[in-house]
């Protein structure tokens, strides 16, 4: 049984290590969007290149995150976590010195692999190291400090872009990564599951899943060309997706056991997740561009302007989770997307000459309140929809679904609203397309609200609640640290009794 106490020096080192590692990924999810216009100008990149700068990272991260957790269980969680941290740092360094858009996109894909290794490992180390009496508090602190990292991301990104330059958005990852790895080697105990996972890793499933995402993303981004190659890529992506389902259905130890979708509530909540995080992904990709391209603000001003959404998530998500515990998830998952839709419709007023106080801030406050209302109940409902022994798998699938939805939205939204390759260099055209994009995102959110109202029901009494009560990331739901004994490729850890809720966590 893990016996490290949170108040001990070793407990402090373990918490610091996991916060440093996970904060790099959370920071990266918010900081890069602010740098996109400057990256485009310096590397002479078109809009498709900027889409790939975001999506190359998301393809590998979403496609491999479940496999990353299983690797930690098999080979040691500290070892795989440190490999992920150093891999992420090396890829960040390559991003920072990239001479052209092609090298940057390739480096971003490598960065996503590092993120897939370290993201599940950060919580796995907490789960495997801390005494059960301290685990809930440790997870709360991890989530809270990680949320602070996500909150400062847009501000930090803007300051770096306007100051030393956009390359430092990536280079800044290197010092904390080196520090994180050194602390982990010196102060964090190695841990594994205590038994060997059955069967082989589902490498084929992971490859097919990532390939399907990559090919579909490519087809959507390049669809404006109308070439045979693009059409073939789209068809190949759909074939890879079907092959993924068939492989997972017949494999003895699949990465994503399809029988988990036998729960109608689990399936329904994941459909809601797809709607919600598709809208979020599209919004945060385009909003940072809109504020710089159409409104004419600096990168620092644009990054700072987006802080209210993450700040509200960080401050109020715990109370939102407690409210959902009392009244059930149906109302929050219905009302939350509607508030987010209203916030995005308010963003249609943001254009040339927009005022922050009267135009931008009200929209972001409404959007942030909607996020606060729905994110914690969404995670709790996903976990409650399956047996407690499969809670980690359920959370991992939901997390991967959210990331996949975001990357597809970034690929598809510019196509759907008529943004051409040079759109971000033409303020008037970009502003017009941005308004259409916000309406489309709002429609997707309304669809998610309707699905939630029609399908979500109150969980059974005594169902499991997430340990990540405070959540500051707007990119994806929080991963849970607890899961079943691995199914060949899923994130897999032991499941202890639920830790008591701690104030403020």
UniProtKB/TrEMBL annotation:
Domain of life, source organism: Bacteria
TM regions (residue ranges): 12-36, 56-73, 80-99, 105-126, 138-160, 166-189, 201-221, 227-247, 268-289, 295-318, 330-348, 360-385, 397-417, 437-456
Biased composition (Pro residues): 495-505
Subcellular compartments: Cell membrane
Entry annotated with the keyword Transmembrane: yes
Chain segments carrying region Disordered: 462-505
Gene3D superfamilies: MFS general substrate transporter like domains (1.20.1250.20), Multidrug resistance protein D (1.20.1720.10)
Domain Major facilitator superfamily (MFS) profile: from-to ranges: 14-460
InterPro entries in alphabetical order: EmrB-like (IPR004638), MFS (IPR011701), MFS_dom (IPR020846), MFS_trans_sf (IPR036259)
Membrane topology summary: Multi-pass membrane protein
Keywords: Antibiotic resistance, Cell membrane, Membrane, Transmembrane, Transmembrane helix, Transport
Any one Pfam family match given in the protein's UniProt record, by short name: MFS_1
Primary location class: membrane
Protein name: DHA2 family efflux MFS transporter permease subunit
């Amino acid at each position: 049984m893990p016996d490290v106490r949170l108040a001990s020096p070793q407990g402090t080192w373990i918490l610091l290590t996991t916060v440093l590692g996970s904060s790099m990924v959370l920071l990266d999810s918010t900081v890069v969007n602010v740098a996109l216009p400057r990256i485009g100008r310096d590397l002479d990149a078109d809009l498709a290149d900027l889409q790939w700068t975001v999506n190359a990272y998301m393809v590998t991260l979403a496609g491999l995150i479940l496999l990353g957790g299983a690797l930690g269980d098999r080979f040691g969680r500290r070892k795989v976590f440190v490999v992920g941290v150093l891999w992420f740092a090396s890829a960040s360094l390559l991003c920072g010195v990239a001479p052209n858009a092609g090298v940057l996109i390739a480096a971003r894909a490598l960065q996503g692999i590092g993120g897939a290794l370290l993201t599940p490992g950060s919580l796995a180390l907490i789960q495997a190291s801390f005494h059960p009496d301290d685990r809930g508090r440790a997870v709360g602190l991890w989530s809270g400090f990680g949320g602070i990292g996500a909150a400062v991301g847009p501000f930090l990104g803007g300051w770096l872009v306007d100051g030393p330059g956009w390359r430092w958005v990536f280079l800044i990852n290197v010092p904390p990564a080196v520090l994180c790895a050194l602390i982990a080697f010196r102060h964090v105990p190695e841990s594994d599951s205590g038994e060997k996972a059955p069967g082989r890793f589902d490498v084929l499933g992971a490859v097919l899943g990532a390939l399907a995402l990559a090919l579909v993303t490519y087809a959507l981004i390049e669809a404006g060309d109308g070439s045979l190659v693009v059409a073939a890529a789209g068809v190949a992506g759909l074939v890879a997706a079907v092959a993924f389902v068939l492989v997972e259905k017949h494999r003895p130890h699949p990465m994503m056991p399809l029988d988990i979708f036998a729960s109608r509530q689990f399936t329904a909540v994941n459909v809601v997740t797809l709607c919600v995080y598709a809208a979020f992904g599209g919004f945060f990709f385009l909003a940072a561009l809109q504020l710089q391209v159409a409104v004419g603000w600096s990168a620092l001003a644009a990054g700072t302007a987006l802080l209210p959404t993450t700040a509200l998530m960080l401050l109020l998500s715990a109370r939102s989770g407690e409210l959902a515990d009392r009244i059930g998830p149906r109302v929050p998952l219905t009302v939350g997307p509607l508030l987010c839709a209203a916030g995005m419709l308010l963003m249609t007023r943001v254009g040339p000459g927009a005022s922050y106080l009267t135009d931008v801030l009200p929209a972001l406050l409404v959007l942030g309140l909607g996020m606060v209302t729905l994110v914690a109940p969404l995670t709790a409902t996903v976990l409650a929809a399956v047996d407690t022994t499969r809670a980690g798998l359920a959370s991992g699938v939901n997390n991967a679904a959210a990331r996949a939805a975001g990357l597809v939205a970034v690929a598809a939204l510019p196509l759907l609203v008529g943004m051409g390759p040079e759109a971000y260099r033409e303020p008037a055209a970009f502003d017009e397309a941005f308004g259409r994009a916000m309406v489309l995102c709002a429609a997707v959110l309304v669809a998610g609200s309707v699905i939630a109202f029609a399908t979500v029901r109150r969980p059974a009494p005594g169902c499991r609640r997430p340990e990540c009560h405070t959540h500051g990331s707007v990119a994806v739901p929080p991963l849970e640290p607890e899961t079943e004994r691995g199914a060949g490729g899923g994130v897999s850890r032991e499941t202890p009794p639920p830790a008591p809720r701690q104030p403020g966590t």
